[in-house]
Amino acid sequence: MKLAIAGKGGVGKTTLVAQLAREAVGRGYRVLAVDADTDPNLATTLGFPEPVAPLAEEDELVAERAGSGGFIRLNPTVDDIPDRYAVTKDGIRLLVLGGLRGGGDGCACAANVLLRALLGHLLVKERDAVLVDMEAGIEHLGRGTVRHVDALLIVVEGDRKAIETAERTLRLAHDLGIERIFAVGNRIRSDEERTLIADGLPPEVPLLGVVPYLDAVRAAALRGPLPEDPLDESIGALWDAIEERMDASVHE
Length: 252
Fold this sequence. Notes:
This protein has 252 residues and is α/β, with parallel strands linked by helices. The protein has helices spanning 13-26, 42-45, 59-66, 81-85, 105-121, 139-143, 160-175, 191-200, 215-223, 233-250; strands at residues 2-7, 30-36, 67-68, 71-72, 87-89, 92-96, 128-134, 151-156, 181-188, 207-212. Strand 9 (181-188), helix 8 and strand 10 form a beta-alpha-beta unit. It is globular and about 50 Å long. The two termini are 16 Å apart.
């Protein structure tokens, strides 16, 4: 399965992606995590000991595959990129797209085309999971980089601003033809916040699960990587819900 995780900036997408990736590995999935955020932090969150070179900063690769100077190849060759550039830790393979640097439209467009082609190429088998950590907000959706995913998870906190971002994300996702769109409540502190999310979401966006606010996650964020042990049973319950929805879609 290929899942994109989106949402308003600061709602904890990267932390959630890291926890889901570890949960998937524990269940026997072959996991590829893709950091598509312009401010990539997934490697740190997963505890990779060394910085991971973003693909967007591989100037020769981007120019060779997607073009440069205003000339963009719309169908770049990407089949060798995962094996050449992914790094692995604790069973999780990681690709970092990185930020789209500077003001040059050519650089931004070429790197974006490369990511879109890469996501389209990542064919998965039954026990494969691809988790894409999107940049804050809805920028990548606007460029169409997630049209190849099986489902979109919109991460929301218990406030109205996150709900409004979810509503805008939903409209763009529909425009791209993404049919399976779900919400996940993250860092929820109270029943009141959970109710706000459940009542505020559009009716066509099911709330798959709720992850509570955890002091252990906040403490880990101060150091960088998450603890390796599972932090809360809600992540397992959320993955159960994802598997159930994906299994149901296969038999539709």
